[in-house]
Structure formats: C-alpha cells, structure tokens
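Write out this protein's structure.
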Amino acid sequence: MYLICDNGYLRWPTTICPFTRSNKSSAEGFFSTNIESVRKDVECTFGILKKRWKVLNNGFYQRDIKICEKIFVTCCALNNYLLDLMESSHVRVGRGAPDAGDGIWLSRPRDVDPEETDRVMSAKFTHRRSLLVNHLYVARQKGIISVRLNCND
C-alpha cells in the first residue's frame, strides 16, 4: 500500500510523489502527470469532506486511532448518503476547495537512528516509485490504459 503525495513529504516507501523536471514524453513524465491528476481529485474530495464536516477540518479531540477511524468513516458514509440523496433529487453538488494548512503530521518510532532510517526509507522509496513507473509505462504501451490528453479537467 502507498499514499500519493506531492514533493513536500518525506521520501518513505509508503509515500509516492511525482518526479520533478521530467520530460512529459518519458515514462517518468507520464507517471508524474497521472499521479498529479489523481492527487488533484483526492484533494478536492478531502476539501469537500472538510467543508461539510467541521470535525474533519478542526481536528479530532480523540487520540485513540480506532475512534478517529470511526469518526472519519462515519463522515464519509454520511457524505455518500447525502450525495445519493442529492443525485436522486437532481441537486447539483459543487466542489469544495482544499483549505490551507491541512497537512497530516507523521512521526517515526523514537528508538531508531533517524539518519539510518532516512537513508533506508529513501532507498525503498526510490525503488518502489521506479517499480510503479515501469508498471504504468508498460500498461500504457500495451494499451491497457489510455493517455489523458487534457489534465486540466
């Protein structure tokens, strides 16, 4: 499992970001364009959820991860219910804009050497991103996926 992110996050094997300054016709450029397109849709969805449910925007007062998970899943379920209700009544749903400063802070275990962890994580990140690039490029070459010409949708 991995998370699609932008280049502002740490280079961990679970966070996959686009390449910077890559040629759009190369495998890396194609990968980056697709990742950025998918990330945009996800960010818009989170923006909508945060605007609709203030508990997601203002932060949880709970520290138990299971309770936080239940709160988030409940908000998503209620959001889907409202979308279904709006769709059946032909109400147009607009997109919410992501709020500034909506980052998620992660921390590593405290009993490991930070420099060694960063080096190992960076190597794993590079390897995993390379595998994803090759997979996407081969799928495009075989015609399994098509190229999106307009990425501003």
